[in-house]
Amino acid sequence: MSFQAYIDNIKTKTGRTPVEFKDQLEKAGLLTPEFKAADLIKWLKENYDLGHGHSMAIWAVFKNEGWVTDKKK
């Protein structure tokens, strides 16, 4: 499965795109400089019943778009 197909599958399951997740997190005041992958995983599990793999795909989009920073670097 391609990465885009994975993202499309998330949209089908949740009705949301990564941009919509970002907007929702910003409106809730959760998307701060301290925001970590574990925070996203927990939030997506609680609100959308997404597992680790799907959450990490969304995290990858967040990193690629510059919405979060990779603290490991």
Which structural class matches the secondary elements?
A: mainly alpha
Q: Uncertain runs with pLDDT below 50, 5 residues or more?
A: none
Please tell me the total number of domains.
1
| Computed Rg | 11 Å
Mean pLDDT: 93
How far apart the termini lie comes to: 28 Å
Proportion of strand residues: under 5%
Tell me the major beta sheet.
Answer: none
Helix count, DSSP H or I runs of 4 or more residues: 4
Shape: globular
Description:
This protein is 66% helix and 0% strand. Helix 3 crosses helix 4. The mean pLDDT is 93. The chain has one domain. The radius of gyration is 11 Å and the shape is globular. The longest helix has 14 residues. The protein has 73 residues and is an all-alpha fold. The chain is built from four helices and no strands. The termini are far apart.
List keywords for this structure.
73 residues; mainly alpha; 4 helices; 66% helix
Secondary structure: elements and pairs:
Elements: H1 3-14, H2 18-27, H3 37-48, H4 52-65
Helix pairs in contact: 3-4
State the gist of this model.
The chain is mostly helical and 73 residues long. The protein has 4 helices and no strands.
